[in-house]
Fold:
Amino acid sequence: MRVVIAPSDQIASKAADIVCQQLQRKPDSVLGLATGSTPVALYRELISRYQQQQVSFARAASFNLDEYIGLSSEHPQSYRYFMQQQLFDHIDIMPEQTHVPDGMSEPLSSCQAYEQAIGAAGGIDLQILGIGHNGHIGFNEPGSSLSSHTRIKTLTPTTLEANRRFFRDDEFQPCLAITMGIATILQSRQVLLLASGEAKAEAVQRTVEGPLSAFTPASSLQMHEHAIVLIDEAAASQLQLRDYYLWCEQQRSQLGM
Ligand code: PGA
Structure:
């Protein structure tokens, strides 16, 4: 696992560099995308680079991690709607090449179809991840099987609470979601986990330095050959080997890596 600690205001541009390098290497890359507040600055940066003709998504495809069951794509809190607003409507990706689990169709078959579609597209080249305060990735809550594939998950009370801010008081907040599984995520060729702020520090420490455990689903990334954890100083504040990770990055940059 490569741990990159950077100033908060550089996280989005460093993450965008990784996405753009991937698209330069392979213009028809399959990107795994995430929702939540964390990737918003990255998406803004990608839109800006697209507008400056520094990157094109014309041949790319995307698969999002998760979607609420019971929210249609037009619902403002659905993750399909979020992706349209935050990214897809502003870049040249082909609409039919963007995939978000369908929260309105029969969930069991829809999960299977989603997993098959990822396989048919050749697998995910680069998966972007946020992390929950409880260490979840996608909606793989604590206790999720490390071998899981796309399926239905019940959200924990802490996740429901963390996401309540997006819903109006009188608005229905689903407690079920379709999410890629941990094995689905681990099958991606490269993974980029982003985290900012003190509130994520404990989850980041357990992810990077804790035992590999279904209790901290993100710790499964310890099993991945090409996982980058890109975090700001606050999110890195509980890492025991923080200075070592900084030193590793210095060495890499001296070697031009
Ligand atoms: P956040 O959510 O980016 O809104 O903090 C991350 C997550 O729950 O995976």
User: Anything to note?
Assistant: The mean pLDDT is 97. The two ends are 15 Å apart (CA to CA).
